[in-house]
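Researcher: Next entry in the queue.
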Amino acid sequence: MLTDIGVLDFDHYIRKVKTSCRMVDKDQVRNNIIRAAGTIFSKFGFRKTTMDEIARAAGKGKSSIYYYFSSKEEIFEAVVVKEARTLKKELSKVIAGSPDPLEKLRNYILVRMKTFHQLSNFYRAIFDEGLSHFDFIERIRERYDKQEILTIRSIFLEGIKTGHFKPEDPDLVAIAIVRALKGLEIPLFWTHVNEDVDIATEEILNILFYGIVKQ
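Model: Structure for this entry, 215 residues:
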């Protein structure tokens, strides 16, 4: 037979379970909205996408969407952050997957270009000047640029130590590589042709390695 204390403890446990279930359900709904919105944003772009279209894609009423997000901008931010995490995860795998700095840099650039090409919302956030007035876009761009330069700098320094790369200024090399990649990405993104991405990536790899690899 349960004591009064036992009953109170059990009731408290049940309330915690119910609260936890509601939180999980809320997170699932939110993630479903983000996933559906990502598809719509990718298809129509930020400006042409409406809350009605997002609601239909998510299988929700528009009022339900506003329960989870205050605006279309907030949804787009969540979509971009999700895609940024996807890119970071893929690149982290590449960096951890090879002990050879030369192979590591090569794979980093290949995977980066291919994955970036698939993450159209994140790409737009980085390159579409029409979105520059959003504070969160500027924060994402600044954070992404810093992280990429630091990552390439780290790989290059490792390559200098192992004798794979010439002892050039690692900061200048990292910035030059990032700018070269961005210069390629803009025209490639708008062509939407995977073969062009592969060919252009190989070309830039050949040029880069000719300049930085120790002969």
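Model: The chain is about 85% helix and 0% strand.
Researcher: Noted, moving on.
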